[in-house]
Amino acid sequence: MAGLNPQITNLVIILGMMQVSKKVPFDDPQVLFGVRLLYVVSNLIIGGIYLYVQMQINKKKGTSKIMKHAKYQHEYSVDERDLLTASLLPDMKTIQYVEPAPMGSTEEPKLVTTTIHSYDLQQLKSLWKSQLMGVGMMGVMHVYFKYTNPLLIQSIIPLKGAFEGNLVKIHLFGQAATGDLARPWKAAGGFMGMGGDGPKTDKKSIEQAQKARSGGGAKEE
C-alpha cells in the first residue's frame, strides 16, 4: 500500500482486524494472555524506538560541545573539523516558522524560533505524551470496561505509526531531512489527508508575524 495516506491504511487495518477479532476466542485465558502479551510487546518496541531516537538527538548536541573543546581543536585538522561540523552540527541550526492557530481558535498565528535539536525534542515529547495517553485509555477500556477486541488493533496501529513518524525516519532509518522531512513538519492530516494549515516558513509570513506581535515572538529553548 505504498503511497497511500497512512490514515487510509490504518482504516484498512482496523476493518481487517475487526473481522479477525470476531474469530478470536478471547474467553480462552491462554488466548487472552497471548493478546495482552502482544500489546505489551508492541508498546515496549515503541518505547525502545523513542528512547533510541532521544539518544540520537542528544548525542548530536553532546557532539557539538565536544567540537568546541580545545582538545578537539588540536586533535583534528582544519579539513577534518569542517567535515565533522558539516555532518554533526546541523541539529544546532536555528529555524524559524509561523505556527498556525488551532482550528476554530481566535488566537493569532505564533512566531516560533528554535533549534533543530530543541524542535526534535519537542516533537518527541509529543509522541511520548500521545503514546502514554493511548496506553492509559486502553488500560481503562480493558481493565474497567472489559473490552478485549481493541487490544489487537492497538498492538498494530501505534507501532505502524511509530515507524511512519518523521523523527524515526530521520534518526533511526537515516533519511535526509529534505522534502517532506524538512523541518518544521506539517501535522498529520485527517482522513483522506484533510487537515489544517501547516507551519509557514516563507519570508512574508514570518515578517507579518513579527509585525503582529508586540513584545517579541515565542522562543523555544
In words, what does this structure look like?
With 221 residues, the protein is mainly alpha-helical. Helices cover 58% and strands 6% of the residues. It has helices at residues 6-21, 29-67, 70-75, 78-88, 116-144, 150-153, 157-164, 166-171, 203-212, and strands at residues 94-99, 110-115, 218-219. Helix 2 (29-67) packs antiparallel against helix 5 (116-144). It is elongated, with a radius of gyration of 22 Å. It starts with 5 loop residues before the first helix and ends with a strand.
Please mark out the parts with pLDDT under 50 across 5 or more consecutive residues, or reply none.
none
Shape: elongated
β-sheet strand percentage: 5-15%
CA gyration radius, whole angstroms: 22 Å
Mean pLDDT: 83
Distance between the termini: 39 Å
**What structural class should be given to the helix and strand makeup?**
mainly alpha
Order of helices and strands: HHHHEEHHHHHE
Residues in helix, %: 55-70%
| Total number of strands | 3
- Most strands sheet: 3 strands, mixed
| Number of helical elements | 9
Largest sheet: spatial strand order: 1-2-3
